[in-house]
Structure formats: C-alpha cells, structure tokens
Amino acid sequence: ASHSYSHLRSNAQCSSFGIAFDIDGVVLRGRVPIGGSPQALKRLYRDCGTLKVPFLFLTNGGGIPESKRALELSELFGVHIVPAQVVQGHSPFKNFAKRFENELVVATGKGDPALVMTEYGFKKAISVDEYASYFDHIDPVSQYKRWTTKLASEDNDKQTELVPRFNVLADRVKAAFVISDPVDWGRDIQVLCDILRSGGLPGQRNGGQPPLYIAADDLEYQAAFPCERLGMGAFRIALQSVFNRIHDNALEYTSFGKPNPFVFRNAEMILKQLQLYSDHHEKLIPSNGHGEAHSFKTLYMVGDNPAVDIKGARKAGDTWFSILTRTGVFKGKDNHSEYPADLVVDTVAEAVDYILKKEL
Ligand code: G3P
Ligand code: MG
C-alpha cells in the first residue's frame, strides 16, 4: 500500500485514525513491558483519563477471557483498558457458541481454555486436561510426567473421585478448539488424534472428523527467550503430520487470527465504536454511544512479525498503514524483503511518536 501523508495534515482536528497494537514482541515480552510501552500508551489518553485515540490490542495469543486480560494489561501499563480493546486469537470463537451451545466441545491451550469457552456461551466446554483425566491410560506416559495438573474437583476434596460434569465418556465431542499455545504437546496430539479420528469418541475407530478450530497459525513468536519460540502454527503442523500418517483422510481444520483479513475488518469495526468514546470524551464504560462513527482515513497496525502482522495489514487494504518494530520476531536492519512494512521503527514508543506527529 502506498500512502501520501498530505491529506492527514489537512484533517488534523478529526480523530480519523485508530491504532491496533500487537502484544507479544511489541508491548510485552512474557509479562514484561518493552519498548517504552507504558509511556507510549499513556499518550493515547487525555489527562482526565478518557481515551483520546481509539486503539486496541490485536493479538494472536490468548488463554484467558478478554475481561481478565483487560485487567491484566491495565495493571501492566497503568492505563484503563476495557475488554472491547482486547482482541485475542480465540475471540472469534464466540461466534460458534450458538452452534455448539449444548454440545460437548473440548478446548486446549495455556491458561484456562474451558473458562474462555464458557464465557463465550458454550455450556458443555471442557479442557483437554479434564477430558483426558476421565480416560484411563489415554496418555501412556502420564506417570512419567513430573508436573501435575490440578483440576477444580481436586482442589475441593482430594478424596472424592472425579465426577464428570457431563456424560463425558458416552458423549460425542462435536468440535475441538485450540485456543492458545498447548502446554503438553504430546498428550494433546494423542488425545486430539483420538477425538478427531473416532468421530468424537476416543477408543473407537470410525466416524467423521469433528471440526477443529485453531485460534492462530503463528509458526513462531517472540516471548521472553532470546530466540523465537514455537507457536500454535508449529503445533498445528505437528498434529497434522501425525494425524495424516495414522488416518486415511487428511486433517481438516480452520485457523483464525492474523494475517486473516477478517481479523482486520473486525478490528476496524471495534475501533469505530471506540472512536465514539474518544470523540465524546467519555469514560470507557459501555453505553449506547452518541452519533455516528466516521470512517477512518488511516488505521495503523504496529507489529513485530512480518509474516503475520505486516502481511495481514497489507492484505487488509489501503486504509491500513503497517509499522514494524524491531523488539520481537523481526530484528533486521532494513525493511523485511517479503512483507515490507510502510514504516520500520525500533520500538512501539517510536511508532506512537510517529503516528501522533502525523495525526495531531
Ligand atoms: O502465543 C502468542 C503468539 O503466537 C502471538 O502473540 O501478540 O504477537 O500476536 P502476538
Ligand atoms: Mg507479536
């Protein structure tokens, strides 16, 4: 996308821009703020604490409900972030809640996958951790695992037998969801293969594959270690490779998250709602809002991963202006060769500085 900036200067009064920030490798590494992110984000609020610039977080990560993540991020950055400003890889899963409302679905990934799904409205969502615990010997190496998975029922009374919340052993799993980076890849590959090749009843052989939904397809992400770590895309490749060797039909799956263009369209819709708050100097509490949101002239995507954040912003259309930081996956001196960003900066602080100088 080629951009000329002259039109932005002539419209300096109107908040016709918004910002989407990637999280890992841009504002955080692990749980540590990076690149001057707390100060940079504060610049997007007025002194009275109301939102001045519509912005949100657009991450492929997840594992906890948006409401909880908003609180966590507010604490880390020292600004007031509302759940609407947190778009995670699994956020689109709430659109499946109606379809699978009363069906048994399993979810895996770090954090609390069952809680995420339950908050979206799934009434019979269960974590793979819990699901596997009802099947004796489903993981033949579990006794060699030094870590323990604490289940809610174990917290209450260690003596009581695990009582399934649903008729887990007889109920067919109707869909499987990978909501974030899986913790126990070996166990998850085994149990997901069991579910997917048996038509949702582990231990049986035949049955059509239930749908598999994966929150994102990042091969690698930055995290806290000096080199990138394997992400959900790597897990997907591992699961798919094994499944395709043990099963006649190739694995069918749908992955969400950046760089899919619908993620950016959805972000634009949410930013429009946030624009109403910022234009009317409102505190960030849900209300019906006033007036009509106007179209954005420019939407900025600030990301660290060329194949995910920048590729996605480029595909999303000319409104999107991509800014690549050097604090995460991308560490090059010049622009990325395959997915060049509209601008390359060292840190998110530099990105915000550039945007505010252009726009305000
Ligand atoms: O697991 C999270 C990682 O895949 C990506 O996070 O915030 O860089 O989109 P983010
Ligand atoms: Mg990132």
Main pleated-sheet profile: 6 strands, parallel
The CATH C-level class name of the largest domain = Alpha Beta
Write down the overall geometry.
globular
CATH architecture of the largest domain: 3-Layer(aba) Sandwich
Task: Quote the CATH topology of the largest domain.
Answer: Rossmann fold
Beta content: 5-15%
User: How are strands sequenced across the largest beta sheet?
Assistant: 5-4-1-13-14-15
Number of domains: 2
InterPro entries: CDP-alcohol_PTase-I, HAD-like_sf, HAD-SF_hydro_IIA, HAD-SF_hydro_IIA_CECR5, HAD_sf
Protein name: HAD-superfamily hydrolase, subfamily IIA
GO molecular function, one term: hydrolase activity
Pfam families: Hydrolase_6, Hydrolase_like
Features:
HAD_sf, binds magnesium ion, 5-stranded parallel beta sheet, 2 domains, Rossmann fold, binds SN-glycerol-3-phosphate, HAD-SF_hydro_IIA_CECR5, 14% strand, 6-stranded parallel beta sheet, 360 residues, alpha/beta
Model description:
The chain is 31% helix and 14% strand. It is α/β, with parallel strands linked by helices. It has 2 domains: 17-88 and 259-359, Rossmann fold, CATH 3.40.50; 91-255, Rossmann fold (3-Layer(aba) Sandwich), CATH 3.40.50.1000. A 6-stranded parallel sheet has the order 5-4-1-13-14-15, with helices on both faces. It has a 5-stranded parallel sheet with strand order 7-6-8-9-12, sandwiched between helices. A two-stranded antiparallel sheet has the order 2-3. Helix 7 (185-197) crosses helix 8. The longest helix has 19 residues, at 261-279. Residues 1-13 have low confidence and may be disordered. The structure holds SN-glycerol-3-phosphate and magnesium ion. Magnesium ion binds at residues 22, 24-26, 221-222, 303-305, 328.
